[in-house]
Specification:
Radius of gyration: 23 Å
Number of strands: 18
Helix content: 10-25%
Largest sheet: 8 strands, parallel
Number of helices: 11
Distance between the termini: 32 Å
Structural class: alpha/beta
Strand content: 15-25%
Bound molecules: pyridoxal-5'-phosphate
Strand order of the largest sheet: 8-7-6-5-4-3-2-9
Order of helices and strands: EHEHHEHEHEHEHEHEHEEEEEEEEEHHE
Length: 358
C-alpha cells in the first residue's frame, strides 16, 4: 500500500471559481493564470477544468506553453514576462503566443525580427518590478506603430489591491501615461477583481482565486463565493500517549501539561507542508478540528487527539482543503496560500475529483 498522503484537485471547483471571476467584471474576458504549474495544481489538469469556458491562459515558461499547445489548447496564451531572448521568438510564432513586453530590450529584439505577435505593453505604475515608465514614452511612441500590427493591449499590475492603499493611486498614474489611448486594457489580478471590479479592463487576470485561495488577509475564500480546489489529505500512522512533561518532536518545543494522546500524520515539509507552521495550526482528524503540536519534520507532523478521542491509526487527516481553508494554515505559518499550493511536492500523488463534462 502506498504512503497515505494524497492531494485531490477538484476540477469542478476550479471551473466554478473561474466563472465567479468573470462574473465580477461583466464584459471582460479572463486569462486563466496557470503560471507555476497552475499554482501547483497541474497545468494540464487546470486547463482541462476550464477547457470549455476559458478565454485564454497566462503563464511564464515557454515550456508550459508548449505543453498546453501539445495538449490541444486552442485559446490565446499570454507570456506574462514576455520573452527572455531572441531565440524564443520563433517559438512564440510557432505556438501563436501573445507576449508582454516590459523593457526596451524586448522592443529591440522584436524590431530586429519580422515577428508581430499580439503584445501586452506593461507599464510600471508603482509596483516597481517590471514595466515602462513615463520616461520611456517618447522612445516607445517612435517604435510602437511598427510593432503593433498583431494588436496591442496596455497593462499594469497592482501592488496593493488587497490592502488599504487600494488601486486608485496606480490607476491615476496609468491614465496620465497615455490619456489618448483607445485600445484594450488589462489591469486586475484576483484582489482587484474581487475588491475593485470597477477598474474593469478588457482582460482580467485571475490567479489565486481560481484555486480557491483568498487574496485578502481579512476575508475567507468561502465568504467570497470561492470553492477550495486542492485538498491535501493523509492518515494517522502512529499514536503516542504522553505523560505530563513529555515533549514532542525535534527540539522538544511542545511539552504536554497533562496526559494527552497525539497522532502522527504521514505529512511533512518534504510533502509541501510549511515547516514554519507552529504548534496550534489547525488540522482536521476524522473531519474534526484539532491542532498540530511540536515541530513539523520532513515526513511527519504530530496532532493533538484530545478533541478526537476515537481516532486511531488509519484515521483520515485533512491538512488543508475542503473543510479547512489553506488560507488558515498559511496565516498560521506566516505565509499565503499561494506559497502552500506552489510548494506541493512532486512526491505527493495527485488525484482528481469533480470531473467536468467532456
Ligand atoms: C500572477 C499574476 C496575476 C495573478 O495574480 P493573483 O494574485 O494570483 O490573482 C495577474 N497578473 C500578473 C501579471 C501576474 O504575474
Amino acid at each position: 500500500m502506498a504512503r497515505p498522503i494524497q492531494a485531490s484537485i477538484d476540477l469542478a471547483a476550479l471551473r466554478h471559481n473561474y466563472l465567479v471571476a468573470r462574473a465580477r467584471v461583466p464584459g471582460a474576458r479572463a486569462w486563466v493564470v496557470v503560471k507555476a504549474n497552475a499554482y501547483g495544481h497541474g497545468i494540464l489538469r487546470a486547463a482541462r477544468a476550464v477547457a470549455d469556458v476559458a478565454d485564454g491562459f497566462a503563464l511564464l515558461d515557454l515550456e508550459e506553453a508548449v505543453r498546453l499547445r501539445e495538449a490541444g489548447v486552442q485559446q490565446p496564451i499570454l507570456l506574462l514576462e514576455g520573452f527572455f531572448g531572441v531565440e524564443d521568438l520563433a517559438l512564440i510564432r510557432d505556438l501563436r503566443l501573445s507576449s508582454v513586453i516590459h523593457c526596451r530590450e524586448q522592443v529591440e529584439m522584436l524590431m530586429a525580427s519580422s515577428l508581430r505577435p499580439p503584445l501586452y505593453l506593461k507599464f510600471n505604475t508603482g509596483m516597481n518590478r517590471l514595466g515602462f515608465t513615463g520616461a520611456d514614452l517618447g522612445w516607445l511612441r517612435e517604435r510602437l506603430p511598427a510593432l503593433a500590427a498583431g494588436g496591442l493591449t496596455l497593462m499594469t499590475h497592482f501592488a496593493d489591491a488587497d490592502s488599504e492603499r487600494g488601486v486608485d493611486w496606480q490607476m491615476r498614474r496609468f491614465r496620465d501615461l497615455l490619456p489618448d489611448w483607445r485600445g484594450p486594457f488589462s489591469f486586475a489580478n484576483s484582489a482587484a477583481i474581487l475588491r475593485h471590479p470597477e477598474v474593469g479592463g478588457d482582460w482580467i487576470r485571475p490567479g489565486i482565486m481560481l484555486y480557491g485561495g483568498s487574496p485578502f488577509a481579512d476575508a475567507s475564500a468561502e465568504s467570497l463565493g470561492l470553492r477550495p480546489v486542492m485538498s491535501l489529505r493523509s492518515e494517522l500512522i502512529g499514536i503516542q500517549e504522553l505523560r505530563p512533561g513529555d515533549r514532542v518532536g525535534y527540539g522538544g518545543g511542545f511539552e504536554a501539561r497533562a496526559p494527552m494522546r497525539i497522532g502522527i500524520v504521514a505529512c511533512g515539509y518534504a510533502d509541501g507542508y510549511p515547516r514554519h507552521a507552529p504548534s496550534g495550526t489547525p488540522v482536521l482528524v476524522n473531519g474534526r478540528r484539532t491542532r498540530t503540536v511540536g515541530r513539523v519534520s520532513m515526513d511527519m507532523l504530530t496532532v493533538d487527539l484530545g478533541p478526537v478521542a476515537e481516532a486511531g491509526i488509519g484515521s483520515p487527516v485533512t491538512l488543508w482543503g475542503i473543510g479547512l481553508a489553506a488560507d488558515e494554515i498559511a496565516a498560521s505559518a506566516g505565509t499565503i496560500s499561494y506559497e502552500l499550493f506552489c510548494a506541493l511536492a512532486a512526491r505527493v500523488p495527485v488525484v482528481e475529483a469533480g470531473q467536468v463534462a467532456g
